[in-house]
Amino acid sequence: MRLLVTGGAGFIGSNFVTLILSNYPGYEVTVLDAFTYAANRRNLEGIVHQISLLEGNICDARLVDEVVSQVDAVVHFAAESHNDNSIKNPDIFFNTNVTGTLNIAKSCVQHDVRLHHISTDEVYGDLPIDSDDEFSLTTPYNPSSPYSASKAASDHLVRAWVRTFGLRATISNCSNNYGPNQHFEKLIPATIRRVMMGEKPKVYGSGLNVRDWIHVDDHSHGVMLALTNGKLGESYLFGARNRLSNLEVVSRILDIMGKPADHIDFVPDRPGHDAKYAIDPSFAEEDLSWRPAHTNLLENLPDLVAHYTSTTDGY
């Protein structure tokens, strides 16, 4: 199998590439990455001799078509993903997440290449804090931010290309990932880094917004199962039923790092901040026989703190 991984130098993409090389020795992997601020060559330094690494942007239609024509399948991680940045500069999010996905989809149709498109649970909007509801495959899309709106548009694009042009594709929507090598703009590494620098970690609003956390390795396993065993045209939701408020996560990190519970800088909430995410992953569990191996973020946090406090290169 000749596999193209877009965004393969980023947090989730690089963990996925590492998984492929460790478990699927017959795969030839090409990574296409624009190496924006969110990517890091060090994520691939231990495996770079095992892959073909191309620096380029998925918005370059000619480059995308050339690369896609040489592979059997594409796993499409490449995206702008930070909500705060999408509020400040939405244009780049729609350019990368929509136009870039359009280029991928068109080339996959042109060369009859299998596609798996990576998306987010944020396309569904949010749930009430006190609700037991979960996002399912029948939940209507209701994005709140420019980021989630751009990902919703890319999901709809892929589905339209499946129906109209015969694109051989699957989609997965995943909850908040955690694990090693995540960019410091995200909650867990940002909190650890600020404490290391002698600062108080910043928490939006009251900190009661709830997220559904999944380890990046569990997400990667799910993506691989969807690529190899998923039904064409189907969508899969990956979540570990591990729902915690931002305040719970930050408070546990403070405890591990020997700081008092009130060592927090509560800042004004960002516009359109979603209250709660909760994924129902039962279809993925049933159809793909997928199960998350890591189901308790709070138990995993000591190892993550140790990882990030020993890392000095910006991750």
Protein described:
This protein starts with a strand and ends in a 6-residue tail after the last helix. The longest helix is centred in the first third of the chain and has 21 residues, at 90-110. Helices cover 39% and strands 17% of the residues. It has 315 residues and is of the alpha/beta class. Strand 5, helix 5 (146-165) and strand 6 (169-174) form a beta-alpha-beta unit. Strands 3-2-1-4-5-6-10 form a 7-stranded parallel β-sheet, sandwiched between helices. The protein has a domain at 2-180 and 214-239: Rossmann fold, CATH 3.40.50. The radius of gyration is 19 Å and the shape is globular. The model has no long low-confidence stretch (mean pLDDT 95). Helix 6 crosses helix 10 (297-309).
CATH topology-level fold name of the domain at 2-180 and 214-239? Rossmann fold
Q: What is the CATH class designation of the domain at 2-180 and 214-239? A: Alpha Beta
Structural class: alpha/beta
The CATH superfamily of the domain at 2-180 and 214-239 is identified as NAD(P)-binding Rossmann-like Domain
First-last Cα distance? 31 Å
Percent helix:
25-40%
How would you sum up the global shape? globular
CATH architectural label of the domain at 2-180 and 214-239: 3-Layer(aba) Sandwich
Order of helices and strands: EHEEHEHHEHEEHEEHEEHEHH
- Low-pLDDT segments, ≥5 res: none
Average residue-wise pLDDT: 95
Summary?
With 315 residues, the chain is α/β, with parallel strands linked by helices.
